[in-house]
Amino acid sequence: MEKNDRLLTPGEVALMFRVDPKTVTRWASAGRIGSIRTPGGHRRFRESEVSVLLADLTVEANQQQR
Amino acid sequence: MEKNDRLLTPGEVALMFRVDPKTVTRWASAGRIGSIRTPGGHRRFRESEVSVLLADLTVEANQQQR
DNA sequence: CATGAGTAGGGTAATTGGGGCA
DNA sequence: TTTGTCCCAATTACCCTACTCA
């Protein structure tokens, strides 16, 4: 399902989740999110995977009550 | 639909409504407000949705006067 | 090669989640 | 029924310095 394999930096992912870039780094270290390493050690994340996380985690309450 | 996807933390939303952050959490659990979860389990809220809710409060205040 | 922005580390403080109670 | 509060464990945010990226 990789129609778009664009790689995102920790800062970009942090913006999407409204968290600190450091937090994104911890997610990668903890294996909660896949990451690619540059030869220099910096992490890169697949946009497709990040999008799935955002979309999936958004579903918390579909049935609204009033 | 989502022109402004800025996300807010529970604490920020709590300040806007002048309630305890715990209350905001309960709103999310009850489905009264949509929420996004970080991979770590923390919630984030869409500013656009929060704004709508605040606007609703304003409407109620107006209706109270008629 | 030099520069500025971003990132990797590590350490510590602040928020948050969840249950239960008032 | 909704909100606030106390508890503890987990997650996240901010501090620093050194290194990588473009």
TrEMBL record, chains A, B:
Q: Which Gene3D superfamilies match?
A: 1.10.1660.10
Which residues are the signal sequence here? none
Q: Which Pfam families match?
A: HTH_17
Q: Determine the domain of life of the protein's source.
A: Bacteria
Q: Could you tell me one molecular function GO term of this UniProt entry?
A: DNA binding
Domain Helix-turn-helix residues, every copy: 7-54
Instruction: List, alphabetically, the CDD domains matched.
Output: HTH_MerR-trunc
Can you say what this protein is called?
Answer: MerR family transcriptional regulator
Traced from the root, the source organism's taxonomic lineage reads: Bacteria, Bacillati, Actinomycetota, Actinomycetes, Nakamurellales
